[in-house]
Design brief:
Helix content is 39%, strand content 29%. It has 163 residues and is an alpha/beta fold.
Length: 163
């Protein structure tokens, strides 16, 4: 199991004609690959090959669906770009818990993010974020987004904020 950015990089390397690709976790051990080729099209053949590749090589534990890239907007997929340090870490693919929290805790001054528990049934990673001052909605959104970038595809994140 790898991160979203790691999976996207692997798809681009395996399928160089796929120009646009983004992958999103859908929770409950599910993920969606959104892809287009140079002609802004996703052929049935490419869809089948992407599905087979993701299911067999990337992670047999994740139920993967493949959709045309333009459906990402309709599915409200975020286009927010992660921080450079976070991107480098996420591209390592297989991360351990200490690496994830080292990066998260270095990104946010005055905030400590820690692991709470993992719900195997739903694939949800529960985290806690602590701060001496109240969290703004922007800070909450950013912490959640960055945590999601470091979690394995197929997992979702739930953050409880204390501050």
């Amino acid at each position: 199991m790898g991160t979203r950015l790691w999976w996207e990089q692997a798809v681009r390397q395996r399928f160089p004609h796929i120009r646009y690709v983004t992958i999103r976790s859908c929770g409950h051990h599910k993920a969606t690959i959104y892809a287009w080729d140079e002609q802004l099209h996703l052929s049935e053949e490419d869809s089948v090959k992407l599905h087979r590749y993701a299911s067999e090589w990337m992670s047999p534990d994740i139920c993967v669906s493949v959709k045309p890239y333009n459906e990402a907007a309709a599915d409200q997929v975020s286009c927010q770009s992660p921080d450079e340090e976070l991107t480098k870490t996420a591209l390592r693919g297989r991360l351990d818990q200490s690496a994830v929290f080292a990066v998260l805790n270095n990104l946010f001054a005055g905030v400590v993010v820690s692991f709470n528990r993992y719900d195997v049934r739903t694939g949800t990673v529960h985290l806690a974020a602590y701060s001496h001052s109240p969290f703004t909605d922007t800070a909450k959104s950013k912490i959640r987004h960055y945590a999601e970038e470091l979690m394995p595809v197929g997992s979702t994140v739930n953050v409880t904020y204390y501050g």
